[in-house]
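Quick one: co-fold with zinc ion.
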Amino acid sequence: MNLQPLLDKSARDHSHLCPRQILGVRMGLYGMKSLGFDEPPAKKRLLVIVESDGCFADGIGAATNCTVGHRTLRIEDYGKTAATFVDVETSHSLRLAPVLNIRDLAGASVSEESCRYFAQMQAYQTMSDDEMFTVSEVRLLSSIESIVSRPGLRVNCDLCGEEITNEREVQQNGLVLCRACSGNTYYQAAGKTPILSMRLDGKSLGRV
Ligand SMILES: [Zn+2]
Ligand SMILES: [Zn+2]
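Sure, here it is.
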């Protein structure tokens, strides 16, 4: 396994290489290998669901060629350096996570904090796969078909009118709604009634 070109690729879009990118590259390689791929498979056969964004996710992307743009990399932000690797042809799904004491293993003998960082950088490149990661068989709670959906599907939300692709709409009270208008939202208009209470407070679902 030649790690260096992948580390270079990961660090190219950063100003630095860091332990989390190395962890991501190593996990990306091991995740593929555990599914039986020696290299990134063609035709979007691999889907990776990464449990945090940032440097770790970029390392995974560098190793697997999976990207948000190709819809082969998704973020479920649990704030964890873990990821599930899915062979979309067979549904075989493996979740990889670092062993719980990976930091200790990587820098146990180093007392000074700044030195520990470099000890980790070094160790994450040389430790064996099974020293670093646990691999568990998992089953996705949403079907791969519903996660990936199909190109060209689009509807407009009955409330806000905005276009929704990839079957992300929600049926509610006989209406086709976007997630935000259905109350499952991460924002609200500044200074306005929250969308959710608009929906619940009256018979009309019209906009305020
Ligand atoms: Zn970093
Ligand atoms: Zn809407």
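If it helps, The longest strand covers residues 93-98.
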